[in-house]
Amino acid sequence: MLKLDTNLHSVFMLWYHLILVTKYRREVFTDDISNRAKEIFENIATNYHITLIE
């Protein structure tokens, strides 16, 4: 069962799909940058009660 969020006057479920596009074809997101971005997203997720799927 899907969990719905609520506030005083509504019930909702928000889904976001984040796409990061690079300008050049060279490798921009190294393992270090990818790991740091994941840490930042996980920190934000705990503060705002967000579930990261991938």
In short:
With 54 residues, this protein is mainly alpha-helical. The protein has 1 helix and 2 strands.
Descriptive overview:
By secondary structure, the protein is mainly alpha-helical. It is 33% helix and 7% strand. The protein has a two-stranded antiparallel sheet with strand order 1-2. Strand 1 (5-6) and strand 2 form a beta hairpin. The radius of gyration is 15 Å and the shape is elongated. The chain has one helix at residues 31-48, and strands at residues 5-6, 11-12. The chain has a domain at 19-54.
Q: What are the main properties of this structure?
A:
54 residues, mainly alpha
Helix fraction by DSSP (H/I, runs of at least 4): 25-40%
Kindly report the spatial arrangement of strands forming the biggest sheet: 1-2
End-to-end separation:
19 Å
Share in β-strands: 5-15%
- Number of DSSP strand runs: 2
- Outline, from the CA principal axes? elongated
Please provide the ordered H/E string of secondary-structure elements: EEH
Mean pLDDT: 85
Number of helices: 1
For the sheet with most strands, the description reads: 2 strands, antiparallel
Broad structural category: mainly alpha
Give the C-alpha Rg.
Answer: 15 Å
Given as residue ranges, the uncertain stretches (5+ residues, pLDDT < 50) are none
